[in-house]
Structure formats: C-alpha cells, structure tokens
Amino acid sequence: MVGMGREICGDLRIAEEREWLVTNGIGGYGSGTVAGSLTRGYHGLLVAALRPPVDRRLMLVKLDEAVMYRGAAWDLATNRWASGAVAPSGFVNIEHFALEGSIPCWRYACADALLEKRVWMEHGQNTTYVAYTALQAREPLRLTARAIANNRVFHNTGTVAWPAEVSAASGGVRVVTAGDALPLFLKLEGGAATPATELYRGFALPAETARGLLDRDDHVHVATFEATLLPGETVVFLAAAGDGTTAVDPEALPRRRARDRALLSAWSGAWPSGAAAAPGWVSQLVLAADQFVVDRAQTPGGSPGKSIIAGYPWFEDWGRDTMISLPGLALSTGQASIAAPILRTFAAFVDQGMLPNRFPDGAAHPEYNTMDATLWYFQAIRACHEATGDDGLLRDLFPVLRDIVDWHIRGTRYGIQVDPGDGLLRGGQDGVQLTWMDAKVGDRVITPRIGKPVEINALWYNALRAMVAFAARLGEPAEPYQGMAARALASFERFWNAAAGYCYDVLDGPAGAEVALRPNQIFAVSLPESLLSPERQRAVVDACARALLTSYGLRSLAPSDPAYQGFYGGDQERRDAAYHQGMVWAWLIGPFVEAHLRVYGDPDAARRLLAPMGDHINAAGLGSISEIFDGDAPFAPRGCIAQAWSVAEVLRAFTLLDQVALPGSLSP
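and the corresponding structure tokens:
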C-alpha cells in the first residue's frame, strides 16, 4: 500500500516530507526520511527507551553508506549541512521505497546493480537492525558505512555526547560517552570495523526550522564499517543499547515479519467479513496501531504494566490519549488481550479521583492536569467489557471507579467538582489547561474553557450511565448513579443554543456561555448515551459538517470565527496559538462518523468519510496518520507524523461500520 519511485525519492524536498517509523514496543523507535537525510532532532536509527517507555536517548543517529561497484563510487546516504550544501546526495540513487508490512525498504540503483536496504527493531529490546542485500550485481559490491552516533536526550537541546570512547568489542565497536548513558554496541556481521572519534558539526534540520526550534545538530562519527556483498548476498548491521546484545540474530527479520502476519491474522480473525472487504490501507493501519502499544516498566505497585505512546516522535504516554485510543488500537485490531493490562496499569496511578495526564520523560512523577482523561477511562472500560465480558476486570476496577465518582462529587484538583445546583461537572482555574484543547503559551492558556465544557458533561453523563450498568452487572447498588445521571441529563438542556442551532461549547464560564462553534459537541451525539433529541442530534451533525468537516477530520474552530487560524507553523508560540483555533484533528473523524451514522443511518456515506485516509498514509508519516492538519486547504499534515488516537479512531470507525447490518441500528 505504501510505495513510491523516483518521482518522489529523487526530489529531495518531497522525499524529506515522507518519514518512516519503526518501534520496539518499549518506547524506543527509529525514524527518518525517505531521502535518508536528517530533518528533525528526533531522527535516528536507534532512539532507546532507558526507562520504558520514557527516558529516551538518541544513540545511533544514522549510517552514511556508499558502495564501490565496477570501479565507481555510489553514495546511498544524504546529508544537509548548515552551510546549505547537500553532501553526499545519495537520494538520487533511490529507485524505489516501500513499506513491506511495517519494514521500510529502499532499493538503490548503482549502474546495473540493485541494492536493497531494510530497517527494523527487535520487539522488546533497544536494538535496531539494518540489512543490505545485493539484489542484482555482475560482480561484488564493496559496502562502506560510517556510523554517526550520539547519546543525548532525544529532544534536541544543542548538546552532543562528546568526547566519546570507542573500542573494539565482539567483532564490532563499543561506544561510551560521559555521564550515566548506556554504552552503544555496533556491528556489521561479516564486516570489519575501524573505530573513529570525529565530530561532525552543522547538520541542518529543515523541519525544525519550520517549527521555530533549534535547527542545527552535531553528532560523532564513531566507526567505519566495511563489507563485501556477493550477488544475492545479505549483510546485517546491528545497533544495540547496553552490553547485552552483541550478535546478529539470523531469525530477527523472519521474527519481525511473523509479528506483522500475526497482527493481521488477529485482526482478520476478529472481523472476518470486514477484513476481507477492507481496502489495503486499513490493514496498513492495523500494523501502525501496534507501534503505539508499549510496556511500562513500573507502576506504583512495582509490577510491569502496559501503556500507549500518544505520538511519534516526541510524545510520551498520556492518560487522555491512552483511553481514547485503547478501543481502536486494541479491540478493533483483535488485540483485546492488551486492553486489560493497560486499564490495570492506569488504575494504579489514579490519585484523588484523577488519571494522570502525562508521564514526562525526565520526571519522576506523573502530571494530573486533566479533566477528561478520567472520564474517558470509563468509556475504555465499557468498550473493553462489551468486547470481552471480563467480569473479573470489572470487579477489580469497580472500587477505583466508585472512588473516582466520589472524588468528583466532593471535589478534587483544579476546582473539578459536580455543581450541587444542577448536577453538571465544572472545573478549571487560571493558568491550567484541563481539557483536550490544552495549548498553552507561557502562562497563557489559549482555550482555558473554565466552567462546564460540553464534552466533559457528555462524558460525565456517560460515566454515570456506565456505573449504573457496571453496578447492575456486579450486584452493587446502582440507584445513586441513576439519580445523578438523570439530573445531569435534565440539566444538559442548558447547553442547547437555540439561536445558533447547536450547543454552547462551555457553560458558566468567567464570561458566561461560550458560543464558538467547536467540535466538542459531537460527543453529545457520538457517545453511547446521547443527551440530545434526534432533531438536535441532526442539527449538531449538520453544523459540524457545514463548518468543521474536512477530508482529514474536524476543524477545532469554525473559519467564520474571528479567532480562527488556518495555518500551523512558525515558532512554538505561534503554533500553540493556532493548535486549537482551527487546526484539523484527525482523531475527531471517528466520533463524527459515529454521530453521522447515528443520525443518518447511511453506512456507505459514513464509510466514504474515511476514504481520504487511504491517500494520507502515503504522505508525512508513511503507513500512519498525522496528529493534525492545516485548517485551510489543501490541509497539509502537521504535528506528529504518527498519532495514536488518529490511527485508533479511524480503525474504530471502520470496525463500527463493519458491524452495522441495517441503517439506523445505532439509533438511541
């Protein structure tokens, strides 16, 4: 599904806009451009997670390869320099690039010789493999690869791990830098290694220039590797963090391919009719889904757990993103077995009735500045139980859920509390961002949404209705939750803006009701328990369709609003100011498809709303879905190249449509 020839690969600007990603299931990853050049400080062949899934270090940055063939030298690598030079420029020799399942593969044409290169990571290990195959040649190819390394935090802070000590070890080299960083082991199986300690200054990073971030980087040439490839022969390069792995495992590539097959088999086994009829891009997203699911080294109880990385290359695991993403990444892919461990992991972090918002890379403790992550937790548990019938999980988590409700009644952090006057949930304070619209510039929150946000109260009502069902299932008292739900439902009437024909975004804020047309009201239609009459549901869907719907999701603000911004770029202040003021969010296509289906009962029309994602997987993060897009056409992809909830919600929506036997079957 993802493949391109010289028309893309041979144009440096275009080839640099297409990025590949490989992951290891513990937070580590490898990522770069199709061209082979670095454009971000986050790019590298081995970014290791030292405390899975966080504390990530850029270790092996890249390999600068060249081949000698029939007396001529052919560059495979490409570098941009701060001087403006591009040298070497091996992208001109790329004949084809494709994803083979989850494995990026380049084919280089060097006269009449063809050389293939593949990159993948070992699942569960901070280990990257790079394989070179002489696909076609009339005589041997001489491969040279200069290993460019570092050992810094994966955010580009302007530092470089220097000096580096490089020594011969186990047929390769061992690289040690100052501080407490793990050593890096490098080896070319069947090749020779020559240690080096040469500082390369001034790598240019154009993607960071566009984002107003530090756009220069320095790295260290730590060794040069050489090997001869006979026609049809393969040599494999190994990069491993730590002192454990020093030998190339010949089963590493077959094992990676077997994992891809198993993921697709689980998906097709769970949804046989849908998988059989699905376009190929959906199966590519099934493989992408696996990239976000990670092990979490420790929970407060000291046991290992599971989590979800919010996005690559720079996000950690976030509570909100995890709970929104879980149904699509786990249940829609036939991987229901990973849902319960994730839910149990987050239960261990609940504090004062709140789920963590995020687990910062360098911090010892999670942050709890979220009003909605906790409420999405109820929806994730409900979806998991509906899919698995796991009463044991429900029984174990019910006390946690009961405590969450109790905390929300009596009040928890940041003024989050049920209003005793109307039974709606309120929250917020100056300088703190609590909803998913969480952009902040310095101390200024762009969309503070203090008061009673519409989606928060749709989620609160659905959480209470879920508690009614959970209590009944477990033989627990359900009446208190029934009463609170009934009161919240009656009070939700206040959200209806009759003059505009859609819902207020926030009630009882510092300036009263917020009338801006935003997508948050779609959850009052899409969540399992709708709070609106059929007529109002349709009005909300139509309002969002007219002003917010694009090919890749919903805008975060209507273009008619004076605060609307249609372009995402510039320095961090400008980008954050636009983040929720018009940018298109891909994950919102999921709830919109669900709401559209509920209102119109037309699966074919709803399914067509997802089709543009089949084109998008060939741009930006290849085989995946971006975080956001510009609000103005042509809706250029922005933000993270691979976002968990973007992939998850498209998969969930596709699976939902597969389950619809008759129009109107999702009617409330």
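(Above: one complete record from the training split.) The two ends are 37 Å apart (CA to CA).
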